[in-house]
Amino acid sequence: MKLYEITDIYNGVLSAIENEECTAESMEEALKIIEDDFENKADSIACMIKGLNADIAGIKSEEEALKKRRESAVKRVEWLKAYLSSEMLAVGQKKLETPRNKLSFRPSVSVFIDDELELKAMHPELTTVKTVVTPDKNAIKAELKKGVHINGAYLVEKQNLQIK
User: Can you tell me which residues the record assigns to a coiled coil (predicted)?
Assistant: First the structure.
């Protein structure tokens, strides 16, 4: 039986008692069985939640390990490319072709700035301004708790299930 079905039966029995269709004493055994079923089902679901949380932690740990491996591999590739490039240029080799690889240099142009602050001061027309504005939820919460009305913001009380 599913948890919601047990809940429906439990609420049906309580409703019958409240409407005096039966007495609490006559339904005591049924209520006890339903409460036990509910408790067992809730306990099973809580165990599933704990198991899934453990899986999540393991997956997160593995993601972090994989991220470190990826970052290490990226750095290794960058180092190897710089090493190969410098050695090829040192011997004057601009192109190299083997049965497995074809290596060559392609020219590119990039901008290097010695002093960004000085450049910003001397050439403000060549700069861009990035502004990120986000609501300060902690400040809003404090104001709302004081009773201040803030359009578009309100406090929501939640019930957070804790499983230990």
Answer: 17-69
